[in-house]
Amino acid sequence: MTEKMRILYYALWAAHPVLQTVIAIIMLRRGLNKTFKYFFIYVVAQIVSFAVVFPTCQYYHSACFYVSWITTAISVVLGFKVIHEAFLDVFRPFHTLRDLGTVLFKWAGLVMLLVAGVVSVSTNSPDTAPWVEAIMTAQRCVRIIQVGMVLFLLFFARYLGVSRRQHSFGIALGFGTFAVVELALIASWAGYHMSDLAMSVVNMTAYNCTLFIWMGYMVMKSPARDAAFTLLRPQRWEQSLSDLQHPLPGNSLIPMFEGMVDRALSRTQAAPSVSEEDAAPPARAPLPLSNLGIGNSALHSPGISGLSARAGSKT
Fold first, then answer.
1. Nearest Cα to 103, choosing from 79, 80, 84?
2. Which domain holds residue 208?
3. 266 found inside a domain
4. pLDDT, tens only, 20-68
5. How far apart are CA 178 and CA 186, in angstroms?
């Protein structure tokens, strides 16, 4: 490593805790540490991680390897929790969808652990320890989930009433941007298209850009959720999931009330047609009652009134 590359390398690395400290201070002053608890813990953990890893790698080279990978494992777990937290903030008005997302995240975490365990057991590389391989696999799985979260927000933000200026969108955008760069670097490094030093420099530069994205979103005021035209579709999703989770019993009164409303609507629609028929002139004038041999006094009896009604209907 040349002197210029060494200076650039340590400058990019030292910029991490500086930017993270600024983000933590902004979150504390604006009270965002309560809304995004795990993201605040993640930022503080990264500051502590630098305070531990940097002097260890400078003075204790034998312990640097283990300390750096342990802090990486902690970052992977916190990164997964932060994405889950951003997901919950996006689906905050929809409790059923939020519960479904929580279940899906739990299963994703379980599958991620199983994949990491299988990879660590099946690997036979003499250069990489099995537990290191497991951490790397889990890290890549988390990066893929972060990219998927960003793509989900980009495509479904308008259906959920989520603005691209909201804090949860900015957190997911930062993680997703860095995840895309890191996955591309891993692919290039695996194909021997990039050296370790170049990979580290590009990776730290991308992470600094992510920190600037987070800083900008923490400073920016998050707009209110737009519920004017975007909530009809997720409300249908919410209602459908609620019906599946809590089906109505067979003797429920709600279907009866729905049937009464349908019959009332059908009667009101049929009423105008009946009035139009009454208003239309008859094809032939009805016979007078005197021609039927019925006197005025006989109209008060029930039988005669029924006869007159039938006679009128026949005409």
1. 84
2. 3-238
3. no
4. 999 999 999 999 999 999 999 999 999 999 999 999 988 888 888 899 9
5. 12
